[in-house]
Amino acid sequence: IREIRDELHRRCKLPRTLSETGKVTKDQIAKIAEMALDDGSIIYNPVEVDLQDAIAVLENAW
User: Fold this and answer.
1) What confidence tens digit (pLDDT) does each residue in 7-19 have?
2) Residues of the chain falling short of pLDDT 70
3) Domain count, the chain
């Protein structure tokens, strides 16, 4: 599965992480997390998320 995933990413030339986009810096993670919590669509998340949870998700995506 990993080989297929890697091949797909190579062919599509899509970034796999936030850092690979070249548009998000590590310093922006906390601000992005705050903005995500202020977004109205957060109510549809099946699990309640606080700022630390959001930061952790973004750091994992980094």
Assistant:
1) 998 899 888 899 9
2) none
3) 1
